[in-house]
């Protein structure tokens, strides 16, 4: 039977293993690489899983195609990290009709029908944006600060939410002005290119708010190439806390990082096991995260896993 009985704990040709189809966003950032590793290292045969993994190269149509192929293969559970928030209802309805439970990991969908997925595991991106904004509020008091924002992938949950959270934290502080905001698609190279444009158009930038470390690292390179000192002439605040970002923070080139944990593999494995056992996992599981100053980064760096 290749039709896939979602409750049977693996009857898609892999013995007693639980078959999981995982449709990853891509390999756009250090965060994503660590997230992929966490999932692949956890959902192993030794741990009772048969993992089918695909990389959508940041394209929604590729993710939809991968999910359709998992449905056709009759996997026990589908998990995915949606590249953008909207446009998932049709394929999720197909999974539901095939009786294959779906677990959202890392990113949300904007579907109104919550029965289209069993659980959503990941960060609260609004809170992450708020933490970044609050640091800026606390750090600069009444000083006039010109901020440029490097947004994540347009339409993605972390870009939407980190923007909204940051804006709500600085609201009412008229001295803190976002003078330019553009997507850098969560990549280092686009972060650099967009920052070069910002620097050419605005002689007076005080702070970069980047929605992830990689774009912050790209901005750092652009700032250095423009003959300015990142972390001093232009402050940098980012989200993620991957090793390269933490190194820049410890070196004084970044000023503050809000953590976003990519280590979702173990919790995903638990959710999948629960679902296959016929149990109901929690609908929303929020990842626990902290923040880092330059001093805290120096302390944390030696033990950083990713
Ligand atoms: O969805 C999580 C975000 O995606 C990370 O913050 C970013 O680095 C990644 O590309």
From TrEMBL:
It is found in: Cell envelope. GO terms for molecular function: carbohydrate binding. InterPro entries: Peripla_BP_I (IPR028082), SBP_2_dom (IPR025997). Pfam families: Peripla_BP_4. Transmembrane segments: none annotated. Residues 22-279 form the Periplasmic binding protein domain. SUPFAM superfamilies: Periplasmic binding protein-like I (SSF53822). It comes from the Bacteria. Keywords: Signal. Its main location: other. One of its GO terms (cellular component) is cell envelope. Belongs to the bacterial solute-binding protein 2 family. This is LacI family transcription regulator.
